[in-house]
Amino acid sequence: MRDALAEAILELGTKDRRIVVLGADTSVSIKTSLFGERFPERFFNVGIAESNMIGIASGLALAGKIPVVSTYSAFVPGKCLDQIRNAVAYPNLNVKIVSSHGGLTVGPDGASHQTIEDVAVMRAIPHMHVVIPADAPSARELILKAASTPGPFYMRLSRPNVATVHESTADLEIGKAALLRDGSDVTIVACGIMLSEAMIAAENLSQEGISAEIIDCHTVKPLDNATLGKSAAKTGAVITAEEHNIIGGLGGAVAEALSESRPVRIERVGVRDTFGESGEHSELLVKYGLTSREIAKAARRLVRGQSA
Amino acid sequence: MEQSQIPIGMLIQKAVKIRTHILEMVAEAKSGHPGGSLSAVEILVSLYFHKMRVDPKRPDWPDRDRFVLSKGHAAPVLFATLAEKGFIPTSELKTLRKLNSNLQGHPDLRVPGVEFPGGSLGIGLSAAIGMALAGKLDRRDSRVYALLGDGELDEGETWEAAMAAPKFKLDNLTAIVDRNGIQQDGLTEQIMPKEPVGYKWRAFNWHVLEVDGFDFRQIIDALDKAENMRNRPTVIIAHTVKGKGVSFMEWDPAYHGKAPDKDTVRKLVETMR
Fold it and tell me: Fewer Cβ within 10 Å of end Cβ, chain A: N or C?
């Protein structure tokens, strides 16, 4: 996904001179430094100063630039929520925050670097778009689409290489959930790396005669209520899956929306309101229940009418 | 411009009008921050009526100079100045802090001429750096001015920004510190000592100037020197008095965020005219 970010911003920077990129001493790691090598005049490394980075991005946007701001998601929004709220979201500025290493899968770095609350926090801020791509091709496409959509964005990327779930990405739109697999018994709404887990779960469930529909809800805000409601009406049961606390993220957003528009049974797969720890990312996904197995278990319970 | 060409009389008249507006606005609103608005009057008058290239008919003119009020609670002085300059009608000033008004408690972009929504302290210098970087990228001659409160110097982000501006050689950026000596809880040197303020900025590689913040000649001379400095940002430490112009407000921390009542203001305004 890091390569997707670097590719996307290089493409954007070539096409549009308004694109500027800001880094906070992590730009080599997340490869935005490649933009700096190509366009040194339009790349600003502010050092380990995330608040200042967002404030500078605000000023650049106020002067007509389109800043792409990027560092680890542990620090943006964590260390600069006030700047994001007051200097970016409130004035509705064209700042694209792309945070990398989101969720648990930074692995060995441990809980201080694992973000499980960023989506909840960013989603509650007016004007803010929240986007979590599932794989590298969709990340690239959604970054390009976000750059051409006015307003503030928070995009969260994951560190590990994830399986590609999108065969084509040209049709992806901000705010439009993508149907990845047709099904009739249960809907799995996922974002980020949990899409590939959802695909495995659906394959296994089909062998048991359970037909699962899969929706890539890459845009958590604004939420695509129409697509979600339509699928919930068809299957009558919804599972959300995310690399985030089950409080306030995709699960929270979907539960809020469907409880008003199309009440159905919902199970949320995600981190169960606890901090993470050091470990390999695959080990962490198993320990914290972020696997195809957990999704499939939830699907069986919903289809059989059992409680969690 | 030669010092002799500075229209001191006009600037003094503007300052009196703006002080009057500030008092009437906060009295009408029954809330707001008069103290730190009154201390910054001469600074804003020097900028808007002498130094800055702005056009009230074209608030979005790309080559304009930009003013960032980082100490956003001093919104009354900014709104009153914008009104005197012709960006907004003076009749609008009495809507400060009222429902459905454009004049929010803190600066808001919906007001023509407002460049940054300051309010949460510490962000404005960073935003001014962003504007200055954009000006350099676009090869514009325009300058960026940021007014910081001295209490605001407690904020860590101010020093993140102070470290960054010299790195980017932003000689098109001038920061001004309204050194009025008082923050919300009391005297700045008791709440969180700031001295030696000038040395701190010097240590961060800024071009540092100190002025009497009520002396137009000193303020304008410093602004000119800042403009002539190459490859370094300038900070002007403007020594002021919180609540300047109203004897019972001067040096009283209570008037950081307290509005005087209308009767008191009416009497005060009579003496000022």
Answer: C
